[in-house]
Design a protein that fits this description.
The chain has seven helices and five strands. It is of the alpha/beta class. Strand 4 (about 75-80), helix 4 (about 85-95) and strand 5 (about 100) form a beta-alpha-beta unit. Helix 5 packs across helix 6 (about 160-175).
Amino acid sequence: MRVLIVDDEPIIRMDVREILEEKGCVVIGEAADGKTALNLARSLKPDVVLMDIKMPGDMDGLQAAKLINDEEICPVVLLTAYSESELVEQASSMGSIFGYLVKPIKEEDIMPALNMAVAKWSYYKKLKEENNELKSKLESRKIIEIAKGIIMEKYNLSEKEAYKKMQKLSMNMRKSMVEIAKNIIISNKFEEIMKI
């Protein structure tokens, strides 16, 4: 697992690096602030970012985590102190955090948290892909239905006959049903404009 460690305290970064390397992880970078973390995440494309929630500078861990998530780079696991429970709640409501660890970090907690974050990320990406695919299919279906309605009205055909006509056009022209449907809709609009 390729990990980016982000914490403004060098001793914590060193301790976390040691633990991760003992567990077989590769630490591909370290950062002490959110802005550097974001830039490193963009360029190094880690499997996961382990990031302190509070850091100095223009961008804290929450802001950097949100941007890393929005850009779909990788999951982020936040490091937090017990006293920062309000920030953890804020992070949870953002939906861009895939786990968190409480300082001082226990060695036995790191790998389960990172593994869980990577697994959740993979599931999230799969769901998003399926969602986009379904949206695309729905849009295609809408376009085909509109074109089918035009053919039914224009040639006084049943729904089944209109669909078969579109299928035949699709096969003969070696174009997808959606391309055929779009052409039907465009040519119909063109005809309507020419009548004016």
